[in-house]
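Name: Lipoprotein
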Amino acid sequence: MIKRLSFTFALLTSLVSMSCKEINHSPVEEGKLENGVYSSTYFNMSMNVPESWEVDTMGKIERKTPAEEADKKDTVLVANLLTIYREGEQEDFKPNLSIMAESKTLYPQLKKESDYLEHTQKQYANLDPITSDIKKKVLTNDIECYTFDLAMTIQDMTIKQTHFALKKEDFYIDITITYQSDKQKEELKAIVNSLTLN
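Structure predicted for Lipoprotein:
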């Protein structure tokens, strides 16, 4: 149970209150991992994946399927693009990074990435986390995004996260890093800073 906590927290924002299922046909493709680089053709993005890191999830595409729209074309609402992890210094924890894309149509009331992160913060409210203010940040490759940190204690284990949000195509992209130590955080931030968008 504890061994999976890091993945649970990294993917909590994907637990929106709707019915989803896997699909096979969509313009949002699975992405690929070649020579230590993850890339997505649909989002025109790439990111380095260190050789020592393991891939837990890649290209899990989901959608909302209302019964009255069952005969309509597939519409991607949530795509778990990538989750990677490294065996941690402590046996029960694996620092990890996840990339999730959510369609802007899910949140018509939101206007920008900072609004999306405010919504994300609220998803953690029942876990009583300590969260930082949302700030604008520029990554190494001059990519602008919004970010916030959180910390929470579950079963005597303190978990920390940093969320990075940006808009691409018709989606909000949330890159989440989950860690315990400052060393793990810096290692994960270096991966995030390898992000490129075309």
